[in-house]
Amino acid sequence: NIKEVMRLLIDFSQKNDNRTLVRNKVCERILKKQSILDLIESHVFSANMTYIKPLVEFVIKYEPIIRKEGNAMTIDAQEAAVTLGKRIGMTVAENGKKGDLFALRKARRKTDFLNELNRLQFKCRLVVPPDIYEGKLTDSNFVEFKQFCMIAALNSFYAATQLK
Predict the structure, then answer these.
(1) What is the rounded CA–CA span in Å between residue 100 and residue 27?
(2) What's the average pLDDT block by block, 10 residues per block, for the chain (164 residues)?
(3) CB 3.0 to 4.6 Å from 120: which of 32, 75, 126, 133, for a disulfide?
(4) Are the CB atoms for 29 and 21 separated by under 8 Å?
(5) What is residue 162's predicted lDDT score, i.e. its pLDDT?
(6) Alpha-carbon span 116 to 104, nearest angstrom
């Protein structure tokens, strides 16, 4: 539902013209057939929302369509990132706090990201699938992998906390 996606891209905490700034940037990139993953990730973590499911579904469907072969992550890696993100979100909702997601998001390198995953494994009893370590997460696709993972994690976190 594109109407719902566009509504969720409005940041009502901002003043007048700044409310639709992210939505306008996303629309511009869509028209240019460019990736919107970084915009969506920063928006869902900075805006005051607890329902982001339409945004997550839109990004998961849109990104593979505009991706060029060879220089981007594969569909399998995207699915692995989303699956890992869902696990992270559910586990953190049960055994941790939202700050754990922010700590994971702050990781700027692959090694830092893996260290944060290990910390969550011990702290929250997170189970990380072995295929993450065996090739789904690479140096070349790290940024996209982390963005998909974090968007899915936040979505799962909100869904799990709404059920409590």
Answers:
(1) 31
(2) 92 84 94 93 88 93 79 82 94 89 92 92 89 85 93 93 77
(3) 126
(4) no
(5) 85
(6) 6
- Give me 64's structure tokens: 């593979």
User: What does the chain look like in DSSP terms, one character per residue?
Assistant: -HHHHHHHT--TTS-GGGGGHHHHHHHHHHHTT---HHHHHHHHHHS--S--HHHHHHHHHHHHHHPPSSSS--HHHHHHHHHHHHHHHHHHHHHS-HHHHHHHHT--SHHHHHHHHHHHHHHH-----HHIIIIIS-TTTHHHHHHHHHHHHHHHHHHHHHH-
Give Dmax (Cα) for the chain. 48
CA distance 137 to 110: 8
CA dist 39 and 44 (Å) reads: 9
**Measured between alpha carbons, how far is 22 from 25 in angstroms, rounded to an integer?**
5
> Cα angle vertex 38, ends 26, 8, to 5°?
50
Using CA atoms of 54, 86, 160, 58 in order, give the dihedral in degrees to the nearest 10: 0
